[in-house]
Design brief:
By secondary structure, the protein is α/β, with parallel strands linked by helices. It has two domains: 162 residues, Periplasmic binding protein-like II (D-Maltodextrin-Binding Protein, domain 2), CATH 3.40.190; 132 residues, Periplasmic binding protein-like II (D-Maltodextrin-Binding Protein, domain 2, 3-Layer(aba) Sandwich), CATH 3.40.190.10. It has twelve helices and ten strands. Strands 1, 2, 3, 4, 5, 6, 7, 8, 9 and 10 form a ten-stranded mixed beta sheet that branches. α10 crosses α12. The longest helix is centred in the N-terminal third of the chain and has 17 residues. The chain starts with a helix and ends in a 12-residue tail after the last helix. This is TRAP transporter TAXI family solute receptor. Pfam families: NMT1_3 (PF16868).
Length: 325
């Protein structure tokens, strides 16, 4: 009986990896790297965990690289400096149209979608001691941290604040660094755009009292009409500091690949990700929406052929016209 139990366990542990074993790996790289963002943000936690999950089951080494976030990841994946990355649909569209501030005029069209990740809510955090409990309370000339330069937050949140009539001084930095500056009183507000729960916010509220600020119905309507975002509600259970759900806006994130990445490798990566949501959620809670049904949220990028093959095989229709060459 003991031998049978051992054999059963071995079969179970191999169940995830076995499909990859049947693939022709002749064009697979020995290792891979995925572009994420700064430490303290969701991209880095999600991307690092995903890379380890892929490496454990595909027989190649993998890891995450700290980058400037979605806009820079589009550039790095387009040029082939990185084979994989994480991006947000707004920066992806601007990069595809040649409007990236990192390379104006360059249409980054060698980037293909792999799978849906989660929505990025745009939310504001202040110290409770500041007395700032709403967007209207932010004083003229307040110093606001918008995340790493070129990040989704840095690209869109300043424009959103201006649209809502906020006058501010701009500060950039990693989420961890900005959280520390907020706690030390060096800045007044941090305007976060990251999957929830945001590690830097969770760490902040353990160390001090914070206010997590949402939008009024009117503010949310104004922003959704002016930017490529949709309304989103942060559940009260997300943070200790929230006593009720918080209305904000959000933008979808997708994992991306260089369109020339091996089709069989991308197929296996998508298969592992889409068929093991419990594992993805154990990496980061934001992965609750890393499910195949959300493939429809991509209305910007062409699909990688390997990704499209998995979705089409499993009943999620991606037409030939939407598949990268």
């Amino acid at each position: 009986m003991k031998i049978q139990a051992i054999l059963a366990a071995a079969v179970a542990s191999a169940a995830i990896a076995s499909p990859a074993m049947a693939q022709d790996k002749s064009d697979w790289p020995e290792s891979f790297t995925i572009g994420t963002a700064s430490q303290g943000g969701t991209y880095f936690a999600y991307g690092s965990g995903w890379a380890n999950f892929m490496a454990e089951n595909l027989g190649i080494s993998g890891g995450a690289e700290i980058t400037g976030g979605p806009m820079q990841n589009m550039a790095l994946v387009h040029t082939g400096d990185l084979s994989f990355g994480l991006t947000t649909m707004g920066p992806a569209r601007e990069s595809l149209e040649g409007k990236s501030p990192l390379a104006p005029g360059m249409a980054m069209d060698n980037v293909c979608a792999m799978f849906p990740m989660y929505e990025t809510p745009f939310s504001i955090t202040t110290l409770a001691s500041s007395g700032i409990t709403s967007i209207e309370d932010i004083p003229d000339g307040a110093t606001i941290g918008f995340g790493p330069s070129g990040s989704t937050s840095d690209t869109y949140f300043p424009r959103m604040m201006e649209t809502l009539g906020v006058d501010f001084e701009r500060r950039n930095g990693s989420w961890s660094d900005l959280g520390g500056q907020l706690q030390d009183g060096l800045i007044d507000v941090v305007a976060f755009a990251a999957g929830i729960p945001i590690p830097a916010v969770s760490q902040l509220e353990v160390q001090t009292d914070v206010n997590i600020i949402g939008m009024t119905d009117e503010q949310a309507k104004t922003i959704t009409e002016a930017f490529p975002v949709s309304e989103f509600v942060i559940p009260a259970s997300t943070y200790q500091s929230l006593e009720e759900p918080s209305r904000v806006v959000s933008m979808w994130n997708f994992a991306i690949a260089n369109c020339d990445a091996p089709e069989s490798l991308v197929y296996e990566m998508v298969k592992l990700t889409m068929e093991n949501n419990d594992k993805m959620v154990s990496i980061h809670k934001a992965a609750r929406t890393t499910i195949p049904e959300n493939y429809t949220k991509n209305n910007v990028l062409a699909w990688h052929p390997g990704a499209a093959r998995w979705f089409n095989e499993n009943g999620y229709e991606i037409p030939e016209s939407k598949i990268g060459k």
